[in-house]
Amino acid sequence: MFYPEPISKLIDSYMKLPGIGNKTAARLAFYTIEMPDEEVTDFAKALISVKRDLSFCSICGNITDQDPCEICSDESRDKSTILVMESSQDVVAMEKMREYHGRYHILQGVLSPMDGTGPEDINIPTLIKRLQEDEEIIEVIIATNATSEGEATAMYLSRLIKPSGIKVTRLAHGLSAGSDIEYADEVTLLKAIEGRQEI
Ligand SMILES: [Zn+2]
Question: Could you say which residue ranges form the zinc fingers (C4-type) (predicted)?
Fold first, then answer.
């Protein structure tokens, strides 16, 4: 079907989002045309802002609008424990629980030989450097997802970190296999962190 160029461009843009096919993209595009000017402008500004105003924390790799991020800058947080997570969305899930008071390291991915993602492609070198430089760290809790990539990443990190004498633990599997931490409920997360085991 023929669309005027501004519409087809918008449809193409929506189709780049995950889970959006051409029908949904067209529906969203026409919905956008109907939206009040102000809402569309706010929407466009929000899109630009997430790219312009956010960066990765130079310490923990979390997405932030200040560097170091709010958590790394918070002197009241326990400096002895680092919770290693796959994504910034996982951190949000963990923070909602309000039971973890240590710090984080966000890998921004997992090891995945299938996709060609190796240790250098995610925040593993920065984690190792951090562990070498920060003598206050005594435990690293690996909280990657219970997927095969998440497990492989946990094992890889454990082998890498253990010789340094830092305790390495893994979240207990109240989390079902293949599950995403991002979607786990708070009770499950709390049980997983309380029942963590050394690996
Ligand atoms: Zn940080």
Answer: 57-72
Q: What is the pLDDT of residues 72-90, one digit of tens each?
A: 999 999 999 999 999 999 9
Domain 56-198 matching CATH 3.40.50.150: the answer reads: no
48-65 pLDDT per residue, tens: 999 999 999 999 999 999
CATH architecture of the domain with range 5-52:
Orthogonal Bundle (1.10)
Q: 66 C-alpha vs ligand 1 centroid, how far in Å?
A: 9
| Six token digits for residue 166 | 């830092």
Instruction: Provide the whole-model pTM.
Output: 0.79
Distance 178 CA to ligand 1 centre (A): 27
